[in-house]
Amino acid sequence: MTWLNYGYSIPIGMKARLVRHVKVVDEYGNIIEIKMWQLPKSTQDKPHGYKYSLVYIVNGKRVIGYDNAESRGDHRHYGKAERSYRFTSLTQLTQDFYLDVEKYKRGEKL
Predict the structure, then answer these.
(1) Contact 16/40 with Cβ under 8 angstroms?
(2) What's the rounded mean pLDDT across residues 1-18?
(3) For residue 85, which of 22, 55, 64, 74 is within the disulfide window of CB 3.0 to 4.6 Å?
(4) Rg of the chain's alpha carbons, rounded to an integer?
């Protein structure tokens, strides 16, 4: 059984600790939101012990997203495309996300 926390399921009885929540509007009026939780223990689909969601929203639509929700493991979204992501650390995850946001702003292919 699970309960929803910011739209992401966390098993009942498992107290995830929010370690980072940032929501900003960039110079173009687009939204960047980062949410990261530390789980009290690793799970099969989150062996690193973290749950996360990083999104870049343009005109109300997610154009870039990194998450590990819904038991699909670590992955990222580029528009409608979804690709796996190799998680190494929260710092690297954040850097990779911001690099993709900057590429998008420059019109580069992701």
Answers:
(1) yes
(2) 55
(3) 74
(4) 14
Report CA 78 to chain centroid distance, whole Å.
Answer: 12
Beta bridge partners of 21: 35
Burial of 68 by CB count in 10 Å (0-12 exposed, 13-18 middle, 19+ buried)? buried
**Is the distance from CB of 99 to CB of 110 less than 8 angstroms?**
no
Nearest to 67 by CA among 46, 47, 95: 46
According to the model, what pLDDT value does residue 15 have?
83
What is the distance between the alpha carbons of residues 60 and 68, in angstroms, rounded to a whole number? 21
Q: What is the pLDDT of residues 77-102, one digit of tens each?
A: 999 999 999 999 999 999 999 999 99
pTM: 0.85
Please, which contacts does 8-14 make with residues 24 or more away whose CB atoms are closer than 8 Å?
8/51, 8/53, 8/67, 8/69, 9/69, 9/70, 10/37, 10/39, 10/51, 11/43, 14/39, 14/40, 14/41
